[in-house]
Design goal:
alpha/beta; 4-stranded parallel β-sheet
Length: about 170
């Protein structure tokens, strides 16, 4: 069985994933996979550089995440383009990782930790959805503290995601 674990930024999703992992679940983390597909020499980094330019690549040849963030969290079209570039690579690796788990641990409970599971209409890829949420004021405060953001930058990042209340009230599956 595959569960989809999702929630907005800074809602405690990683804490829930750790709790489930301690109880024996195998976590396939989309954020970790996303970091892997943009490492130097990987296809994802090449795609990003070709679309967003060298200003999002550090001198060391790694992705300059803050520079990219300044672009995509203020431009919906740029964010959508980034998702279009990377999501196929991320999904392919997640499927391969899941298949490896199924081969070695056929009865494992697998958790797909995917922040944009609902927004990207991926709920049909999992058997059940676990939604983690907190009140928006708590989410904003946690995001500012965690990522050292001012209130405007944190609000822009929250605005880039589907509001938690919509995730909670809407049909998920």
């Amino acid at each position: 069985m595959i569960f989809g674990l999702t929630g907005g930024i800074a809602t405690g999703k990683s804490t829930v994933a750790e709790m489930l992992q301690r109880r024996g679940a195998v976590i396939v983390d989309a954020d970790k996979v996303a970091r892997q597909v943009v490492e130097p020499g990987e296809e994802g980094l090449k795609r990003i550089a070709s679309v967003f330019g060298d200003e999002v690549i550090s001198r060391e040849g790694t992705l300059d995440r803050p520079a990219l963030g300044r672009i995509i969290f203020h431009d919906e079209k740029a964010r959508r383009k980034l998702n279009d570039l990377l999501h196929p690579l991320i999904m392919d690796k997640m499927r391969r990782d899941t298949e490896k788990v199924r081969q070695t641990e056929p009865h494992a409970v697998i958790i797909w930790d995917v922040p944009l599971l609902i927004e990207e209409k991926m709920t049909d890829l999992v058997d059940e959805v676990i939604l983690v949420y907190v009140p928006q004021r708590v989410q904003l405060a946690r995001l500012q503290a965690r990522d050292h953001l001012d209130s405007d930058e944190a609000a822009a990042r929250l605005a880039a995601q589907l509001p938690i209340d919509e995730k909670k009230s809407g049909p998920i599956m």
